[in-house]
Amino acid sequence: MTQFTKASDEEILQAYQATNSIWKAAASLNMAGQSVHERLVKLGIKLNYPPFSEEEKATLIKDYLLYRNLGQLNELAKLMNRTKQFICRQARQLGLTSQSGPKPYSRIWKGMTEEKARPIFDKFKRSSFTLNRFCKRYGFDDLGFSRSMSGLFPDEWDAVIESKTPRQTKYRLGRAFEYRVRDELRKKSYFVLRSPRSGSPVDLIAVKKSHDIVFIQCKRGGAIGVDEWNEFFHLCISVGAQPILAEMGFHEIVYWKMIAPKDGSRRAQPKIRCTLL
Fold it and tell me: Whole-prediction pTM value?
């Protein structure tokens, strides 16, 4: 939590006169912008507000609902170098606070940057809400939210969605998929052992005459986090086993061979599709 300092009226006045900006004055004094604004008003200082520009209007139309629903209007005001009261007044004049007015959700998500999306995505990850409940709680369009977040954070999205599946349901579906992979490989004459649920990164071990030993991670959606991927990959390499990821395709099980560790970037997962004969 940010620790703000106190300043005298004279210090606040001098900082405002030097910067001609409430937020810059607040930053120089390590104070909250709202506090500086309130103190200047009490001192009877005539505050200099530049005209509300078309660029600011476009920013408010695009971002107001997003920041309001997240409870972060103070942050938006700071970014716009305005007060919270000012942007709220402008939002009312633009019809953004009307319950019956249009909800420009497409503008919220269109062109969303990773920097702006990250705190929203992290809030979703930390919450106990499912996707639908989270979007309903914060007034988001669930389709726009899903498209934006999955596009910006493709390596994390599926894992987060899977983590929000009820534990029993997730375990039951995961176990059923492991059995399906096991049974398919047995039909191909592999000897297959299913790893007990003891924290091992390996779900299945498959062995066939004149073939390499195969370690398999079974993920219905194909998503594996960086740490889990690298732990599994390095274990396979250390014992000379093929690192294979099995996921559920449209009508068949799809097998991928991991070819490198993950580096945490947004590049495609280091894997190639393969066939287990």
Answer: 0.44
